[in-house]
Amino acid sequence: MDGELGSLLKATAAVWAAMYYARMAAALIRPGAARLAALLPAVALFCAIPFAFSTTTFRGSSAFFLCWLGTFKLLLLAAGRGPLDPSLSLPHFVFSASLPVKFRQPTSTPAKSKDQDPASGRGHGPAKILVSGAVIPFIIYAYQFKDAMSWWQLVLLYTAHIYLSLEFLLGSVHALIHGVLGMEMEPQVDRPYLASSLRDFWGRRWNLMVPAILRPSVHGPVRARFGDAAGVMATFLVSGLMHEVMFYYIMWQPPSGDVTAFFVLHGACTAAEGWWARHAGWWRPPRAVAVPLTLVFVGGTGIWLFFPAMVRGGLDELVLQECHGLVAAMEQAGRWRRRRSYSFHALTSRKHAL
């Protein structure tokens, strides 16, 4: 764990230095090929940083933040688009580039943010962070009994783990950004269990930073040239390929193609869904039917194509081993602290006796 914290400090310093360089380069060079060439060293650094970590938690998080979202933001910056702009302050630029955040645009009239409204059910309030952080250890503990579980029970456990981990991770990032910069962010997850269609699930409810980056970088350009269906398919294809890359970073396993197939299938169904929706007079299921149908389709295809890649790679075993290592490190730190406390009390007792 000490090695991981040291790597985190070095990675943080490297990110700040690289983003200072990227901001200066973007300010001096016009959008285009020259700016892209100038930003390529920062892109390469973002792809290399996850290799500095030995645990799946740090390696996977840094790969998602930097290798996926960060590199796409830098590529958009090279084209003069996207959330990054050299006019931003350095802290704002660094956080925008290296973390899964999308800052809320200021409005002229102050209004209570939905992120801060418990009734809205959106955002990452302190209660959600605490609940997610409290439940995740129980899920990890339950992995010890996976051999006695049915496949459905194991999939439900994986699903809960992914959802709560995302809530906890993004909520913690939101709290950090709000505390440091005092700025509000767009919600990153919006009750995906209420999605009434695939477009609703992927575009407006689940891990919203990903579609926010893929829209201007993939969907928009492809749609303008080849139409909406091609834009949707290209977006899901890129998402599938990047998920394969994330799995490689996390598990050191070569891509199987299953995860890409999962997203290509969802892309085709989402494109078909959009084609159907454009016909105003055609039948549409009521929301009470559409929501469970959507969840069953997402869950069923996930069981078929997405989760087997995690099981084959032994992700649950890796997480369990790292958690055991963390517990052992905490126990060792506790014993060391108790020994120091005992030595201090013994020393003060001798001084008083003298």
Question: Your description of this structure?
Answer:
This protein is mainly alpha-helical and 354 residues long. It has helices at 2-28, 33-48, 56-78, 90-98, 126-142, 151-181, 198-204, 209-226, 228-251, 258-277, 287-312, 315-353. It has a domain at 1-101. It contains twelve helices and no strands. Helix 3 crosses helix 8 (209-226), helix 3 (56-78) packs antiparallel against helix 9 and helix 5 packs antiparallel against helix 6. The longest helix is centred in the last third of the chain and has 39 residues, at 315-353. 31% of the residues are buried. Mean pLDDT is 84; it is low at 107-121.
Helices, by number, come to: 12
- Poorly predicted regions are 107-121
Helix share bin: over 70%
How far apart the termini lie comes to: 42 Å
Instruction: Please provide the ordered H/E string of secondary-structure elements.
Output: HHHHHHHHHHHH
Instruction: Report mean pLDDT, rounded to a whole number.
Output: 84
Sheet of most strands: none
What is the alpha-carbon Rg in Å? 23 Å
**Total beta strand runs:** 0
Structure classification = mainly alpha
Residue share in β-strands: under 5%
GO molecular function, one term: O-acyltransferase activity
Domain Wax synthase: 186-264
Membrane topology: Multi-pass membrane protein
Organism: Triticum aestivum (Wheat)
Structure in a nutshell:
The protein has a domain at 1-101. It has helices at 2-28, 33-48, 56-78, 90-98, 126-142, 151-181, 198-204, 209-226, 228-251, 258-277, 287-312, 315-353.
